[in-house]
């Protein structure tokens, strides 16, 4: 156990209280993201973790049925105490939040945007007052920085800058809000070294890498695939390039291979593409472990090179020994990466063939850390960060 030297009163403590604020749900039906992995790793070390979901308002629940279902799943899990030990999850009660992605919705909610984040519900108030460390993932959670700081000015405030917010698609007011408040955090953790360059002036940035669930990744898990078949797996929906998946599917069909898409939607997919929808990590894992090739179909956009370190699926694919298909225009490379250029005729088919020929090797993931190790690195970074 790492010693905790945040201040003299904490020396010798074996357990601390963390509040984690994010837009992700802690729900049995919801996929695990990096925020869940940190929460579970801290809880496994004996720390108390309050996990609060922001930005999933009543308004959004009325618009999106899947959001409503995730809220119900998260609330049921919390009510029935089925979350892991030391994790206490809550969906923050909000009437509205600053919707992003629709120009019409952004205009209609612009007057309300200025009011968002000014108060928190009773559950979150109690969690904030008790917390020693408050972690807010960039996006909607930093809107609540001021009210949480007022509730507990002694807490250590840490921001998680896990993606370029402009690439994710947040509205300009949300981008501006994050840029204003990030310099006020004691520490801003990034999950890729390249993301440090995108932090606003004055922010105290620190790179802490991603990890994998080494204790859960067992290579003797039952395979979900039919024996003797070839399979490509694609996990996640960030910057999902539907057209690329269809072109890769055409190339894979010539090899008699099937693509399994988890966590992203496709309309009328090709015959050799199976869309599984959103799956919990435990159900996703066998698809990764037993796949022949991993697919990371990110759209080729400028400034996405940070994904080589931040992408959980890339870390998981590599640790499980998969060759990985990615767009060449992303500008990233790795020992097990096979790059394709959709603008070059025949290049996708050539890359798919090369990925199958490259084969699997556990050596691809030899340097990847487990989440237990990454949690220790985070605690060390918090302990050494100056107070602001």
Tell me what the structure shows:
The chain is 34% helix and 16% strand. The chain has 15 helices and 13 strands. Strands 3-2-1-4-5-6-7 form a 7-stranded parallel sheet, sandwiched between helices. A 6-stranded parallel sheet has the order 10-9-8-11-12-13, with helices on both faces. Strand 4, helix 7 and strand 5 form a beta-alpha-beta unit. The chain is globular, with a radius of gyration of 21 Å. The N terminus is likely disordered.
Give a quick summary of the entry.
The protein has 388 residues and is α/β, with parallel strands linked by helices. It is 34% helix and 16% strand. The N terminus is likely disordered.
Features:
single chain, 388 residues, alpha/beta, seven-stranded parallel beta sheet, six-stranded parallel beta sheet, disordered N terminus
Shape: globular
Rounded mean pLDDT is 92
Q: How do the SSEs run, as a string of H and E?
A: EHEHHEHHHEHEHHEEEHEEHEHHEEHH
Low-confidence stretches: 1-12
Major sheet size, sense and barrel closure:
7 strands, parallel
Give the beta-strand count. 13
Number of helices: 15
Oligomer kind: single chain
Proportion of helical residues:
25-40%
Structural class: alpha/beta
Q: In what range is the share of β-strand residues?
A: 15-25%
Which secondary structure elements does this structure contain, and how are they paired or packed?
Layout: E1 17-22, H1 34-44, E2 48-53, H2 58-63, H3 65-79, E3 87-91, H4 103-108, H5 110-113, H6 122-130, E4 133-137, H7 145-151, E5 156-161, H8 165-168, H9 172-181, E6 187-190, E7 205-207, E8 230-235, H10 242-253, E9 257-262, E10 273-277, H11 281-289, E11 293-295, H12 307-310, H13 312-319, E12 324-327, E13 337-340, H14 347-358, H15 371-384
């Amino acid at each position: 156990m790492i010693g905790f030297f945040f201040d003299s009163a904490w020396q010798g403590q074996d357990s601390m209280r963390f509040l984690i604020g994010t837009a992700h749900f802690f729900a049995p039906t919801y996929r695990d993201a990096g925020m869940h992995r940190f929460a579970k790793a801290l809880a496994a070390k004996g720390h108390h973790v309050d996990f609060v979901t922001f930005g999933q308002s009543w308004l959004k629940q009325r618009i999106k049925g899947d959001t409503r279902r995730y809220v119900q799943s998260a609330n049921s899990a919390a009510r029935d105490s089925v979350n892991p030990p030391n994790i206490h999850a809550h969906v923050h009660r909000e009437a509205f939040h600053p919707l992003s992605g629709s120009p019409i919705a952004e205009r209609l909610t612009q007057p309300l945007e200025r009011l968002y984040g000014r108060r928190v519900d009773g559950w979150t108030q109690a969690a904030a007052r008790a917390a020693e460390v408050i972690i807010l993932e960039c996006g909607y959670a930093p809107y609540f920085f001021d009210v949480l700081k007022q509730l507990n000015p002694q807490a250590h405030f840490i921001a998680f800058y896990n993606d370029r917010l402009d690439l994710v698609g947040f509205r300009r007011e949300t981008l501006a809000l994050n840029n204003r408040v990030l310099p006020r955090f004691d520490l801003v953790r990034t999950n890729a070294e390249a993301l440090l360059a995108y932090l606003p002036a004055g922010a105290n940035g620190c790179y802490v890498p991603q990890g994998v669930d080494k204790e859960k990744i067992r290579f003797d898990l039952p395979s979900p695939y039919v024996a003797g078949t070839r399979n490509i797996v694609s996990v996640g929906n960030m910057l999902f390039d539907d057209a690329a998946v269809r072109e890769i599917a055409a190339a894979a069909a010539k090899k008699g291979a099937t693509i399994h898409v988890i966590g992203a939607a496709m309309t009328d997919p090709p015959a050799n593409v199976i869309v599984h929808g959103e799956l919990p990590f435990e159900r996703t894992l066998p698809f990764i472990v037993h796949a022949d090739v991993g697919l990371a179909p990110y759209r080729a956009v400028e400034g996405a090179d940070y994904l080589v370190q931040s992408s959980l699926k890339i870390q998981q694919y590599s640790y499980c020994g998969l060759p990985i298909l990615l767009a060449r225009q992303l500008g990233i490379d790795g020992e097990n990466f096979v790059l394709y250029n959709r603008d070059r005729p025949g290049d996708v088919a050539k890359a798919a063939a090369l990925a199958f020929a490259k084969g699997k090797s556990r050596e691809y993931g030899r340097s990847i850390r487990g989440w237990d190790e990454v949690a220790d690195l985070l605690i060390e970074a918090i302990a050494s960060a100056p107070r602001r």
